[in-house]
Amino acid sequence: MRICRLFITRWNLLFLLVMYCFSLSAQKVARGGGKKAYKIALSVVDDDNQPLIFARCELQPLGTYAVTDVNGNATFENVMPGEWLLKISYVGMNEFEKKINVASDIKMPVKMYSSTLALDEVEVVARKNAAGESTSSIISNQAISHLQAFSLDDIMQLVPGQLMKNTDLTSQSNLQIRGLVNDNNNAFGSSIVMDGMQLSNNGAVNQGGFSSTSFVGTDLRTISSDDIESVEVVRGVPSAEYGDLTSGLTVIHSRVGVTPWNLKMKVNPSCKNVSASKGFKIMMPGTHRKGTLNFSFDYAQAWGDPRMKTKSFNRYTGSLNLGYDITNKWHTTTKLRYNMNHDWSGDDPDATIEGSDTDVKNQNFSINHSGKFSINKMYARTISYTLGMTLNNSESRYEKIVPVLSGLQPILTATETGYYSVPWATSSYKAAGGNISSPGNFIAKVTDQFYIKKGKTNQNFKGGIEYHYDWNNARGYYNDDDRYPLSPNNNGRPRAYYDIPGMHQFNAFVEDKFTWNFAKKRKLVIQPGVRFTMIQPFKDEMTYSVSPRINSSIDVTRWMDLRLAYGRNSKTPSLDYLYPDKKYVDRVAANYMPQDNEAGKLLVYNTYVYDVKRTVGLQNATNDKYEVGMDFQLPGKRKVSVIGYYEKMGNGFSSDTEYIMYTSNYYSASKGLITAPGEATKIDWNNPERTDTLYISTGKVGNLAVSVNKGLEIDFDLGEIEKLRTHVYLTGAYSESQHWNKGYSFETPTNIPTSYKQYGTTPFKIVYPASATKTVYRRFNTNLRFVTHIPALKMVASLSGQVIWYNYSHNVNKGRVPVGWVDNDGSYYSITDAMLADKDFTIKGVKLSDQITVGKENVPITNPITWLVAGRLTKELGTFASLSFYVNNMLYYEPYLSSSASSTLTQRNTGTFSFGFELAFKL
Amino acid sequence: MRKLRGIVTQIMAFCAFCGIMTACSSSDDSVSALSITVQVSAPENAKGLELSGKTVTITGENRSYTGTTDEGGKAVIGDVIPGVYTVSTSWDITSEQYMAATGETVQNGKYIVGGSAASQTLSQNTSIALALTVSVKQSMLISKVYYSGCKDANSKNYLAGRFIELYNNGDEAVNIAGMYIGLTESESTPAYVISTKSDTIFLKQVFQIPTDKEYMVAPGQNVVIANSAIDHTSDGADIYNLSSATFEAKDEQGKTTNNPKVPALNLIYSAYAKISQMNLLQSGPTGVVIFNTNEDVTAWREVFAEGKEKGSKFKTVPSKSVIDGVDILTYKTGSGIDVATKRLYDYIDAGYLNVEAITSYTGMVAYRKLQSKTDDGRAILKDTNNSTEDWAVASREEALQPGVYK
User: Fold this and answer.
1) CB A155 within 8 Å of CB A708
2) Predicted pLDDT at B106
3) Tell me, what's the pLDDT at A709?
4) How far is it, in rounded angstroms, from Cα A822 to Cα B333?
5) Are the C-beta atoms of residues A450 and A23 closer than 8 Å to each other?
6) For residues B110 and B194, what is the distance between their CA atoms, to the nearest angstrom?
7) What secondary structure does DSSP assign to A693-744, as a single string?
8) A407 contact residues in B (CB cutoff 8 A)
9) d(Cα A96, Cα A76) in Å, to the nearest integer?
10) Of A638, A613, A643, A616, which Cα lies nearest the Cα of A628?
C-alpha cells in the first residue's frame, strides 16, 4: 500500500502524461486504421409485447448510449467490431444484459420483464459494482421496498460496514462514509447526485462562529425513498466526472418511464408514509412526438416518541419528470421537484403553560434539464449536458424565555468596535426570532464521451466542464426585537446573508477507461482521470485543486481479479467557511448601578469587532484514498470480495487558532466615572481605572482537522442452499477512524494570580501543540443475510444477523508540554527544554511546571460482542399488490453488559426494536 | 365417624392457635426497643474534662431520646426504636473550666464541648463511643446561607439573590474588619479526604472584610454579605431584599447589579477565572467558613487536589484559624447525602446540612435556629458546633429574611 501510495503521489503527473500520450497514439491508429463500423438496431418490448419508450440502452465498455423511441426502437451507429456488453434498463423492469459480438449490422429484438417476485432473480441486498470501476454498492428499488425504507437515511444500512438501525425522521441525518463517528468533514464531503444534478451544500450559512458540530451536508431524511429506482453508494475512488466531495458519493436515479400507478403505504410505531406515482406516455403539444411524464407524490409524518409529543416531522415531496426526444438524436429529461420539511420541537404542551418552541420549515425547489446528443462522431459519440437550479428556503422560528441567571443581562447590539452605553435586563424575558436561509445553486455541465478501439484494447474517453454558482440571499439570523435578543451574548448578533458574496466554481475533468482483453475472458482495466477545481477566480480567496484518480483491475486468473485504486478528492469550502461571521467580543467598561439614583445608572460595554471578511488562504479539503482489493469467483456462483482501504484527510475544515490582541478600559466609581446624586453618570474617557490587554481568536476558518480512516471490507455471496431456496450473503467491515487537530492552541495559563482571574485577563498566553489528544475508534461488524425466495409463492423473506464483534474507542491524551508563550506586547518566546526541566521556572510570576500536563492514561474502552436479528418478508398478492412486514431486533435482545472500562452494566441495543409494514399497489 | 371428625377439627384448631401465637411472638421480637450505651471520651488535650451529668441525645427522623452520663461518661438510653440516628452531645464550659481541663492558659471566653456520630444504624443493643472535642464558643457565627437560588416570575433560574448572613451571638461588640470568609472546594470528588489533613482546610475562594476602618458588630446584630446588594423583590425575581446588605462581593464581568453604596469585600483568592463573586453552588457542596489570622493569607500555599498535577489549585487554610464553619453537602437523587463528601472536621462542624431537593433553585434558605431570647429581646442562636442540630432549612414561602430568626 505504502509503495503504491508513494508511486502515485510522486509520479501521478508523469503517469497521467504517459497515459495521455498513449491515448493519443491509440487515436492515431484508430483514425488511420479506418475499420468498418456497424449499426445495431434494437427493438425493446415489455412482457406484454408492448414497445417500451425511453428505455436506456448502453454498450459497455464503450459507454455509448441510446434511448428507445415511442416504438421501442433504438439504434447504435458506427459501432466498432468486437464483443460488447449490451445493457438495457427500464423502470420497474429487470435489467437486460447480453454480450453481443459485432461483426456485421445487427437487428435485435429485446424483451424485458417486470421485476416481480415470480421471477427467478430478485435483488433485496446491495449489489457490488463491477471490477475496474469505483468501489460501490448498488441498491435497487426492490431492495429498498423490501427494507421498507422511509428515506435515503434508511437505505444506507445496506452498505457493507454500516449498522442496522430504526427509522428516525425527527432528527437530521447526514452521510458518513467509512467513518465510525459523526465527523462533519466526512458528512460535508459526502456528495449526493440526484438524476444527474449534484445536491450542493455549499450555500449553507450559519450565524455565529465556526462550529465543528453544527449540521452540514445534505439531510438524508429529506430524500424520500419510494421514488428511487436505484442508488449507487461509491465508497471508493469515484470517477473524475464527480467532484466537490471527499469521503464518498451517492448517485440516485429516480423512477422515469411509463409505469402503472404505484401506491404505497408504510407504517411503523413512530412514522407513517404514503406515496403515489405514475408514469404516463404523453403526446407533446404541437408535435407528433411522444414523451413520458412521471409524477410522484410522497408524504411522511413522524413523532420522536409517540408517548411524548415534543418533536415532530412532516415531509411533503412532489416531482414531475418529463422525458422527451426533441429529435431522433437529442433526448432530454426535465425534472421539477418540490420538497417541504417541517420540524417542530417544544415543551410538552401539557407540562408547561409557556415554554420554548422551535419550528423549522425547509422548502426546496429544483429544476433540472439534461439532454444527450447521440452524435456518433469519432471524438463525440455522445454529448451530454445538464442545466439545473435549486432554490432552498429554510425558515427557523424560535421562541423562548431567556434566563438572566446572575441578575444583570446587558443587551449587546453593537456591530462596530467602540464603547457603548447599553440597556439591560434584570430578570428573565421572553424572546423570539429566527433564521431565514435561502441557499441557491446553479449548475451547468457539458460532457463529451467517445471511444477508440485498437486490437484487443479499447478506450472510453470522457471529458467535461462544469460550472457551479452558489449563493445565499436571505434575511439570515434575526431577533424580533433586538431589545430582547434570543442569545444575549457574543454569538447572538443578527447576521444578514444578503451581504455574502456568491461562489463561482469551475471544474474540468478528463478520464480514460482503458480495457485490454489480453487473454480469453481476462482483461486489464485502467481508468485514470484527473479533475481540476477552482473557486472564486481573480479574488483573494481563490483556491484550486487538482485531483488525480485511478481505478484499475486485472483478471489474474479467470477466477480471481485484483483491484488497485488511488484517488485524491477535494471539497471546496462552503460560503460559511469562506465568509465567516464577524467575531464580536464584549467586555464591561463600566457597571454603575446606584440604587437611589435611577438616572445615574450606567452600563457601558466595549465591543470589539473583528471581521475576517474572507478566509484568504483557506484550501480545499482533500482526502487521499488508497484501495487494494481482490474478487474471487468460486464454484457454485459463489463470490468473495475483499477490499482494504486507507484514507487520509490532512486539511479538513476547522476553526483556525489565529490570535489577536486588543485593549479595553474599565471605569469605576472610584476612577473614571463622574457621578452626582440625581444626575446621569458621565465618563472621563481618558482616566480609566484599568486598561486590560485581551486576546481573542479571530474566528477564521482553517484547514487543521486531520482524519484517517482505514479498514477492510468484505462482501461475500455464499451462494444458494438450493433445497431451502435460500441465498446466503455475508458483508462486513473492520474499520478504524482517527481524528486529531494539527496546529497550535493558545491558552490562558492555569494558576495565574487572582488579580488576573477576577478580571478575566491573563499575563500572557501559553502555546501548546494541538495534536496532543486524538480519538481512535475501531469496529469489526458483520451482517449475515439469509434470503429465501420462492417464486411460486411470489414471496421473499430475509433474515439479517448483525454482530458487532469488536468495538473500541480510545481518547489518547499524551499530555501537553507548552512550546512557547506570547506576551502582552505580542512578542513570542520559545520555551526551551532547560526551562521545562527547571521546576521553579516562572513566566511573569506564573509557574511553568503548572502548565505541563501529564498525559491522562485513558483506558481504551472495548465493548463485549453484541448481536441483533431482523426479519423481513415481502409477498406479492396477484399482480397488483404486495405486502411487506419487518421486525428489527426480533428477539428483543437488549442485554445488560459491562465494558472494559467500567463494571457498570449498561443496556445495549436499546431503541433497536421496531416493526412495521408496507402495503403497495400497482394499478 | 362424627367423633373422628370432631377430633380432627380440634387438632386443626389447636394447630391454628399455635401458629397465631408463634406469629405474634416473632412480630414482637422485630419491634423490641433497644438499649443504647453511649460512652463519651475527653479529647487528648483536655483529659481533665468533667464528663458526668451531661445530656446525650439520639436524634432520628421523627423522634429523639436523651440520656445522662454517669461519672465515667457513660449514658444508657433505653426504649430506642431501631432506626438510623445521629448521636451527639454538647455543653458549654467557661474559660476557667477549660483551663482546668487542659492546663492551657487562655483569655476569657466561652468554650464548647461536643461530639457527634452521624448516620448510626441502631438495630440491636449496642455501645457507641463518642469522642469529644473542645472549641472556642465564638461570638461571630454564620447564621444564614442562601445558596440554592430560585425560579423567577417566568420559572427561569435566578441566582443573583444568594447571600451569607453572619451574626454576633455573643455579649460584646466585635470588630470584624479584616475577617476572612472562605468557601470550601467543591470538586465532584472532594479534593482531600477529610481524615488525612485534619489541620488544614481547602478553599476555592477567600474574601476579606475590608480593613479601611473598624466594622463593629453589636451583640444581636447581623452582617449580610451579598453578591448583589439590591432589592431582588422589585421585579419578582426573588424574595429577598438585600439592598441594606453590609458587604458585597463585587462582580467584575458586568453580569450582576452591584450597589455602589455597599462596601466591597476584598477578593483574596479565587481558584477560577472570571469569578469574582461568591461561588455558592446552588446544589452544593457549599461549605462556608469564617476565619481570622494575623498572617498574610496570600502567602499561604495553594495546592492541586490530592494526587493531581493539574486542574484548579486551592488555598490551604490552617483549621485552627477558623471561627465558625458550616458544611453544606449535595443532595443526590436516589442516594441522598454522601457523608464521605464532608469537607469540614468535627471541631469546626460536627454535622452537615443540605436542602433536600432533587433540583436546586428552590428558594430555600439554610438558617441557624433560635435557641432563646434575652430579656431585652436579643436572639441567641443555637451553637453546639453541629449544623445537623443547630441549623434548619426554611422554604421559600416562609421568606425568612436576613435579621429574622426562629
Assistant:
1) no
2) 59
3) 95
4) 46
5) no
6) 27
7) EEEEE---EEEEEEEEEEEEEEEEEEEEEGGGTEEEEEEEEEEEEEEEE-SE
8) 158-161, 227-228, 230, 232, 237, 255-257
9) 16
10) A643
B324 grid coordinates:
465558625
The separation between CA A270 and the C-alpha centre of its own chain, rounded to angstroms, equals: 25
DSSP code for A151: B
Average pLDDT over residues A618-624: 93
φ, ψ (nearest 5 deg) of residue A723: -65, -30
Structure-block grid coordinates of residue A707 = 482524519
Own/partner long-range contacts of A802-805 (Cβ < 8 Å, ≥24 apart): A802/A163, A802/A164, A802/A867, A802/A868, A802/A869, A802/A870, A803/A865, A803/A866, A803/A867, A803/A868, A804/A163, A804/A779, A804/A780, A804/A863, A804/A865, A804/A866, A804/A867, A805/A780, A805/A781, A805/A865
Contact B52, B70 (CB under 8 A): yes
Distance from CA of A533 to the nearest CA of B (A): 47
Nearest Cα neighbor of A225 from A322, A168, A298 is A298
Q: What is the pLDDT of residues A172-224, one digit of tens each?
A: 888 888 888 888 888 888 999 999 899 998 998 887 777 777 788 889 999 99
Residue A177 Ramachandran class (φ > 0 left, ψ -120 to 50 alpha, else beta): beta
**Alpha-carbon radius of gyration of chain A:** 31
SS3 (DSSP) at B219: coil
Decide if B255 and A596 are in contact by the 8 Å CB cutoff: no
Candidate from A429, A593, A748 with C-beta closest to B273? A748
CB A68 within 8 A of CB A112: no
- The residue-averaged pLDDT of A882-898 equals 92
d(CA A20, CA A22): 5
Contact A450, A461 (CB under 8 A): yes
Backbone angles phi, psi at B365, to 5 degrees: -115, 140
Task: Assess contact for A741 and A760: CB atoms under 8 A.
Answer: no
Chain A residues within 8 A of B227 when measuring between CB atoms? 406-407
Interface residues of A toward B, Cβ cutoff 8 Å, are 352, 354, 401-410, 426-430, 587-588, 591-596, 603, 605, 669, 675, 748, 750-752, 754, 756-760, 850, 853-854
Q: Residue A139: which residues within 8 A CB-CB, separation 6 or more?
A: A126, A127, A155, A158, A159, A230, A231, A232, A233
Q: CA-to-CA distance for A301 and A267, rounded, in angstroms?
A: 10
Determine the straight-line distance between the first and last CA of chain B, rounded to whole angstroms.
79
Which triple of cell numbers denotes residue B249?
A: 462581593
What domains can be seen in chain B, in order of their start residue? Answer: 34-137 (2.60.40.10), 140-394 (no CATH)
Could you tell me if A523 and A255 are in contact, meaning their C-beta atoms sit under 8 angstroms apart?
Answer: no
Q: Are strands B126-131 and B34-41 parallel, antiparallel or unpaired?
A: parallel
Distance from CA of B264 to the nearest CA of A (A): 12
Per-position DSSP letters for B278-301, written without gaps between them: ----TTS---EEEE--SS-GGGS-
Is residue A821 a contact partner of residue A766, using CB atoms and an 8 Å limit?
yes
DSSP-derived secondary structure letter, A618: P
* Pairing mode, strands B83-94 and B64-68: unpaired
Q: Which residues of A touch B269 (CB under 8 A)?
A: 754
Question: pLDDT at position B10, please?
Answer: 60
Q: Per-residue pLDDT tens for A871-881?
A: 999 999 988 89
Residue A851 is predicted with a pLDDT of: 87
| Rounded (5°) CA angle A878-A880-A884 | 80
User: How, if at all, do strands A38-45 and A106-111 pair?
Assistant: parallel
- Stated as kind and residue range, the H or E segment containing A6 is helix A2-33
Q: pTM for the complete prediction?
A: 0.81
From A298, A296, A337, select the one nearest A314 (Cα to Cα): A298
In this predicted structure, what is the pLDDT of residue A803? 95
In chain A, % helix, strand, coil (3-state, to 5) comes to 10, 55, 35
